[in-house]
Predict the structure.
Amino acid sequence: MRYTSIIKIHRCDAVMKVEKLTECMELMKILGDETRLKILCILGSKRLMGVEILKKLDIVQSALSFQMSKLVKSGIVKAEEVWKYTYYTIDQERMKEVVKSFRILNEVAK
């Protein structure tokens, strides 16, 4: 293997590590909020309407909407609109990816 090829491989590895670190940092921001963690605990493996989540939290509806938009945008929570209600569920596949990302981050740190 030529020296320039080795440099390109190392650069590619470095870029991948930076991308994975950036992804993990964004996930930590999402998961680092107390209200969002409470929402995830409330949802568990259930499918709930926003109103049902709101009843279990001590926040106003606009605050819930803000937090849910962050969770939905991150892909951790799925939103399904049915008539005039929005149902929320945790995206189990995305959560597996999140766990995998943190495991990879642990490997990168070694």
Notes: Confidence is low (pLDDT under 50) at residues 1-12. Strands lie at 48-49, 77-82, 85-90. The two ends are 26 Å apart (CA to CA).
